[in-house]
Design goal:
The chain is mostly helical and 428 residues long. It has a single domain, classed as Ammonium transporter AmtB like domains (Ammonium transporter fold, Orthogonal Bundle), CATH 1.10.3430.10. Helices cover 65% and strands 1% of the residues. A two-stranded antiparallel ribbon has the order 1-2.
Length: 428
């Protein structure tokens, strides 16, 4: 083991990295349950695709642009294709840079996957792959540099413990842009488009919460006090969001819904993501309770509009992340975080720093995503045809179905409708 490496910190970070990677298949399960059965596989595959594409782009240039150098807007290319990423400790940590690289890669992966929730059930898989590759570099790597890698936000004093800027606000406001460019599903506003499997949704949300202990707890890069605080706050905050969400469901519809409960878990986890290592457990509980209100309101409002941001990434991630970033400006407590106080403890400047991030990150993410998708759309079709959408994206994009009536998987092609099915194991 190299000098300067702490074996305990490294062991924890290896576990945390695995936990965060698990969150992307968990997200796929969560999203798959929220769509109609004919789109189950395609929705899950978008999360799997994010693992493939974002990992490659992160290793090639994303990591370097995010963490090499201290430029205000973007890093350098000194670590491109993982040059210099080895067993030596990452500066400011006691873990190998290889572990730091892998941990940060899992953040890029799940952020790319999150955006798919805005365009499921109609975006072509190939177009999504191209978008995922470009977005992971042009948006995620840039915002990660701003907030984590020595860029202008972190240098100016913005506090973001585990990704309110590059993960939560970036995915939420990029999702809104994606929904506007790709357009609504053809049945949107004309018929009920309901989740087909609430058990998938609850299971996915539970696994996401489990993984979030690595997501937030690992963002201290050690087994020190900040990581312990974030770990505990990741239990407390979502639990309070759940309680308030139950009450809101009862007030609005006289029933506590399973989909609502799963959504509340995500909202609470998102809200504590930027604040986890900076606020006390008591304030974390208040954050969870309060964060339920704006996210719930956005979900109710959005369904009354013509914006088909299908799985409410804006409400669950963009809005809750925005709220969490601002909450730090009010209630950060140096006695707990060892870094800075917020307005409530006499430091008004911290609120200004947080407000700047809450303004800059959504604007950058929305504008770049909007332009990027417009450019991709000028080169290749972004969405399936009406006929393909009616058939379901599973058959059209993958030649498979999530639920088959015969034995085993069946290979289906769009032109095969009405013909005898061919077993995958016997394609001849």
């Amino acid at each position: 083991m190299n000098a300067g490496i702490d074996t305990g910190d490294t062991a924890w970070m290896l576990i945390a990295t695995a936990l965060v990677l698990m969150m992307t298949p968990a997200l796929g399960l969560f999203y798959a349950g929220l769509v109609r059965s004919k789109n189950t596989l395609n929705t899950f595959m978008m999360s799997i695709a994010a693992i493939a594409v974002a990992t490659v782009t992160w290793a090639a240039v994303g990591y370097s642009l995010a963490f090499d150098g201290g430029g205000a807007l973007i890093g350098g290319l000194g670590n491109a294709f993982m040059q210099g990423v080895d067993f030596a400790p990452r500066e400011g940590t006691a873990i190998p840079e290889l572990v730091f690289f892998a941990f940060q890669a899992t953040f890029c992966i799940i952020t790319v996957a999150l955006i798919s929730g805005a365009v499921v059930e109609r975006m072509r898989f190939g177009a999504f792959l191209v978008f995922a590759a470009l977005w992971s570099v042009l948006v995620y790597a840039v915002l990660a540099h701003w907030a984590f890698g020595g860029g202008w936000l972190i240098s100016g004093g913005t506090l973001d413990f585990a990704g309110g800027v590059p993960v939560e606000m970036a995915s939420g406001f990029s999702a809104l842009a994606a929904a506007l460019v790709v357009g609504a599903r053809k049945e949107w506003g004309r018929q009920a488009l309901l989740p087909h499997n609430a058990v998938y949704v609850l299971l996915g949300a539970g696994l996401l919460w489990f993984g979030w202990f690595g997501f937030n707890g690992g963002s201290g890069f050690s087994t020190g006090q900040n990581s312990v605080l974030a770990f505990t706050n990741t239990l407390l905050c979502p639990a309070c969001t759940l309680v308030v969400w139950f009450a809101l469901d009862l007030i609005r519809g006289r029933k506590v819904t399973a989909i609502g409960a799963a959504t509340a878990i995500i909202v609470g986890c998102v809200a504590i993501t930027p604040a986890g290592g900076y606020v006390s457990p008591g304030w974390a509980m208040l954050l969870g309770a309060l964060a339920a209100l704006p996210s719930y309101a956005i979900i109710v409002w959005r369904t009354r509009t013509r914006v088909d941001e299908t799985l409410d990434v804006l409400a669950a991630h963009g809005t809750a992340g925005f709220f969490g970033i601002l909450f730090i400006g009010f209630f950060a407590q140096a006695n707990w975080n060892g870094v800075s106080d917020g307005l409530f403890y006499g430091n008004a400047a911290q609120l200004g720093d947080q407000a700047l991030a809450a303004l800059a990150a959504p604007i950058y993410a929305f504008v770049v995503t909007f332009v990027l998708l417009k450019l991709i759309g000028a080169v290749m079709p972004l969405r399936a045809t009406d006929r393909e959408e009616a058939m379901g994206m599973d058959v059209v994009q993958h030649g498979e179905e999530a639920y088959v009536t015969g034995e085993g998987a069946i290979l289906l092609l769009p032109d095969d409708v009405g013909k005898a099915a061919v077993p995958v194991a016997d394609p001849g």
